[in-house]
Amino acid sequence: MSERQTLGVPTIVLPPLQDPAMRSALQHIAQQTQTWLRRIAQAHDELQGNRGTPQLRANLDAGGNRLTNLAAPAGDADAVRADLALRKPLTTSEYFDTLGLTIQGLPRAATERQAVPLEQLQELIQETNLIANSSFVTVNAEAALSFERQLLAEAGVLLLTDAGANTTLTVSVVANGISNAKLRTSGALAVVGRAANSTGNVADIQATAASDAVLRESGSTLAFGTLATAGLANNAVSDAKLRQGAATTVIGRSAGSTGNVADIAASADTDVLRRSGGTLGFGQITTAYHSDYVSSTFTATGTGFTAGVSSTARYVKLGIMVWLWFDVLTGTSNATTFTITGLPAAIQPTRISHHYVLGQDNGASTRVLMKLNAGSTTIDLYAADGVVWTAANGKSLYECWVCYALV
């Protein structure tokens, strides 16, 4: 190999000059020229390869000529000779010719345009054979497959939602898609549900045949049985829902004990429903039904007579009302006054009242004015509208009733 020859740089020599200013100016020009000639020579030598390694500042245009006499590459950035690289037989060929040599160290291909190593290629072939000869479930019919099964959803029951390649295929139930026929069979006289008061699997909740039971919740359990009182809302049972009753009856319990109700019948007009002898029934009201009813007697003693005169008087007290009955009081008068004593405290009036009754004065019948005194045991009697009694002969009070109120 011939020795590299660099481009020399001439030395600029100035002639002697007497004028210092001229000489200084020419020396400066000579120095600048010398510097630029040195730079041009260095660039030329680098381009020729005579000094350092040529550095291209732009793309190399060979002008249609070949690069020849290339040395074997020593690094990844070196140009490669044709006999050491893949090449196409012709520039229009669609393949590379390795001239019978193998390619080693290929990484696994990640895209369609990358070379594939033998190991990866064998795997792809194996997978292709597996796909072509295996059974698959597909969403759509595939002509390239021989043993595939197409996945179909029953119309109106299931729905297939395909989100596309490399995503998901969702199988869902159509709203109201499960018909009665699609449900499991159930036992006789049963409903499907959850009897326990907890979350869990459903099961048959079964009724007993001919039991007339209803499905209800009782004791935190769902089952068939009778309906308890708590299962009825207040006022939920109307009159029309009750059983029918016999004529002129009411429904109730007549006995003085707990038990089933029955008809309590009224057998006669004017009978009322009352309790008598511990039994509820229809009948007449007696005085025993009035807690404030009193019936009694007392001795009525007359004054203004020659001898003692008395009789048994009777009275009935009902609440604030008093009915007072006197028997005959009669004798020989010896005074112009006539009083009756002995009125019980329980029926003594709270206010004064006057009542007309009949009697006898001096042997002749007359109208008698009876005065009931407030809070007193004594009753005053006046003959003939206030006329004094005759102090002789017969004097009497005839049988009579007197009524007044204790207000």
Write the layout of secondary structure elements.
Elements: H1 20-48, H2 118-133, E1 137-138, E2 149-150, E3 158-162, E4 169-173, E5 190-193, E6 203-206, E7 214-218, E8 221-225, E9 249-252, E10 262-265, E11 272-276, E12 279-283, E13 293-303, E14 309-318, E15 321-326, E16 329-332, E17 338-341, E18 353-361, E19 364-372, E20 379-383, E21 394-397, E22 400-405
Parallel strand pairs: 1-2
Antiparallel strand pairs: 3-4, 5-6, 7-8, 9-10, 11-12, 13-14, 13-17, 14-15, 15-22, 16-21, 17-20, 18-19, 18-21, 19-20
Summarize the structure.
The chain is 11% helix and 29% strand. With 407 residues, it is mainly beta.
Q: Helicity level, as a percent range?
A: 10-25%
CATH architecture name of one domain: Sandwich
User: What Rg do the Cα atoms give?
Assistant: 71 Å
Proportion of residues in β-strands: 25-35%
User: Biggest sheet, strands in spatial order?
Assistant: 16-21-18-19-20-17-13-14-15-22
Mean pLDDT, all residues: 86
The first-level CATH class of one domain is given as Mainly Beta
Class by alpha and beta content: mainly beta
Poorly predicted segments: none
The outline comes out as elongated
Q: Count of helical segments?
A: 2
Largest sheet: 10 strands, antiparallel
For this structure, the CATH topology of one domain is Adenovirus Type 5 Fiber Protein (Receptor Binding Domain)
How many β-strands, per DSSP?
Answer: 22
Terminal residue distance = 162 Å
Oligomer: single chain
* Topology order in helix (H) and strand (E) letters: HHEEEEEEEEEEEEEEEEEEEEEE
